[in-house]
UniProtKB/TrEMBL annotation, chain A:
Source organism (scientific name): Streptomyces spectabilis
Subcellular location(s) per record: Cell membrane
CC per GO annotation: plasma membrane
Domain ABC transmembrane type-1: 68-260
Family statement drawn from the similarity comment of this UniProt entry: Belongs to the binding-protein-dependent transport system permease family.
One GO-annotated biological process of the protein: transmembrane transport
Keywords: Cell membrane, Membrane, Sugar transport, Transmembrane, Transmembrane helix, Transport
Name by which UniProt lists this protein: Carbohydrate ABC transporter permease
Membrane topology: Multi-pass membrane protein
Main location group: membrane
TM ranges: 12-33, 71-91, 103-127, 139-155, 193-216, 236-260
Amino acid sequence: MSARRARSRRLAADIGLLTVAAAFAVPLAWVLLSAVDPKADVGVKSPDGFTLDNFDAVLTDEITFTPMLNSLLLCGGGTLLTVVSAALAAYPLSRYSSRLNRPFMLTILFATSLPVTAIMVPVYALFVRVDLIDTMQGTIFFFAASQLPFAIWLMKNFMDGVPKELEEAAWTDGASPLQSLVRIVLPLMGPGVAVVTVFSFVLMWGNFFVPFMLLLSPDQMPAAVSINDFFGSKGAIVYGQLAAFSLIYSTPVILLYVLIARRLGGGFALGGAVKG
Amino acid sequence: MALFLAGPIGYCAYIAFTDLQLTGQAHESFVGFENFRTAFDDEDFLNAVWLTLVFTFLSSVVGQNTLGLALAVLMRRASKAVRTVTGAVVITAWVLPEVVAGFLLYAFFRRDGTLNAVLDVLHLPSQNWLFTLPILAVSFANMWRGTAFSMLVYSAALSEIPKEVTEAAEVDGASGWRRMWHITLPMIRRSIGTNLMLNTLQTLSVFGLIWVMTRGGPGNRSQTLPLFMYEQAFQKSMIGYGTAVALLLLLVGSLFSLVYMRLLRTEV
């Protein structure tokens, strides 16, 4: 292939990609521009000046801090529960071979791909029965349960990558399985644990439907749901403030994603789960 | 997990056969297949099924999957800077919380929103997208949000194709399209299967995005099954009926899930 053809091909690819990127970027541009625009509107336009008033207006207890704190509690609690349970469940799956392993992994895979949305109505009914509706802990439990199949699946794949010999040494020194899990295996699969943690957290953070259904009182609402208040019910929408809040609310997950993408050298973290 | 996932599913299977309502009723009673019969006679239900099919096909099969593959292929040829920028933009759309994505696209599609402004500049007719073509608008929204996943899956798959194979074909004079069709696609067909399956399952359960953008409206013209289920169960307080719909949705999901497992079978 001649150098010129190679260059013209690369140019064509560049143009193609940039076109798509531009199309994808327009909605993003709206949120960035509107957040600092004193007269923000629904359409993208160059801002009429620069202001931080929108941020000022939303940075109150009621609008930002309480929902964000709720989100943090919900997703933090859910993630912690998920990661601990996933580690405990993945360890025997990865270390001991049993006839039940395969069926169990298949069940997990099956559960991973079920649409969670479909079970929300019965979950709601169940939660009403057992009096967990509108409680933080109930929602945390459900978050963890819905995230767990995927977390176990990922965790097991990462754990399989840790050589067994290191543990055997610890066992001869008299370590219990739990000790060797906590002291040896988990530290060795640090990046794997990080991936599971970040993914669980990001997915919960963005989840709207679960807290929307399971929590009722406004003071418990996470940001995913409270953002809805900017909209519809009050008639007029202050777009600038909405945009500013969207930015604040999105920042943690974007930061986490950047962090983990760096750590894995840009590699695709879900590789273990979707290898085809 | 057994309690929180299997429990609801079992309970779901039970309620679906009752006429449980949210209010004004002491005991639910067993009504057999009544809910299902109602569903299949209900025009709104059939409408939701149809819209779900359209939504899934447009946004996940055509949109996310094809665009994701195209992006992955182009990225292998593009210069590094362009690759980085595109990747960052597309992935940002993916990482954003569902509700935020909904707002962004709501603003994009509104009558006085960005899309119409762009069309105006190009002298193309503008219209109120969310009103005239709501299902198309939400499909695009889902595509905007979900393409990154396919792109990442396919990038990984393409990077595993040995260079020698494509080079050999090139020496033999196979054109770009033919190489794509006869070599690249067959070699990544497992990834395509897996990715299609995951996209479809994801798309089946999309709720927040559509809720924020259109609430299923105008009328019920963008009301997919999850929204229909929500409306029946909570706005019309017919939990039993809503659950029957949920069960049907779950069944469809399970079917897809089973196919997906077969695809991955050898690797467990």
